[in-house]
Amino acid sequence: PPGAGKGTQGRRLAEELDIPACIIGEILRTAVKDETRLGKLAKQYMESGRLVPDDVVIDLIERRISLAQASCGFLLDGFPRNVVQAKALTGLLAKHGINVNRVVFLEVPEAAVVERLSGRLSCRACGFGFHRHYSPPRTQGRCDQCGGELYQRDDDREEVIAERLAVYRQQTQPMLEYYRDLPTFRQVDGDGDLETVYKRLKRIVAD
Ligand code: AP5
Description:
- This protein has 207 residues and is α/β, with parallel strands linked by helices.
- The protein is built from nine helices and seven strands.
- The strands form three sheets. A three-stranded antiparallel β-sheet has the order 5-4-6.
- BIS(adenosine)-5'-pentaphosphate (AP5) binds next to helix 1, helix 2, helix 3, helix 6 and strand 5.
């Protein structure tokens, strides 16, 4: 779900495994900031909490996968988000000869999602996420990682959070059935403090 902790945990895990993290939301936000053609198109969808059209994100992922192929593995965050994207990903991975080690579903109750997203602070420069209460920055308003300015994402406003959750229920949740029976699928309880959830995640990646 939105705000489950995918970005926070995924970045840390990728760093520890020494593999690149391909964070689709981050790539789209950079495109919006740089006002590229992709960014101009994605902006309207992201601001209102809807998914960017499938063909646009599938094309984006294919280009990233071709690059990632040269490295020894990668972590994919935020893709796929519906059955169409899931099927496209299966095809792309087969085409590029890439095996999946783990498909991880980070499960978090909606009440916790709302609390996490409404208190989130994100770095304008590097995208790193903090939380006003659960993981505040050492210096108010500044990123611990790069010193960049912290801000509240446009889509972390109450009404947009509600729309993102509705999109999640309608489009992403049904996709779970596509993965649930695969031997690579793991469900991780994402409710708990950051350290506890990270330990759970590491355990399932290592087993
Ligand atoms: P994206 O950026 O991926 O948004 P999201 O899925 O809604 O996820 P978030 O980034 O909001 O949350 P997260 O799970 O990474 O949580 P985080 O670690 O930051 O996508 C944005 C938009 O791009 C979409 O709405 C859509 O428009 C578009 N898009 C993206 N992918 C797409 C696709 N495949 N197809 C089409 N469109 C796409 O944590 C949240 C907060 O909680 C932080 O403050 C963090 O510090 C805190 N926190 C995390 N874990 C814990 C914990 N265990 N305890 C306490 N606090 C915690």
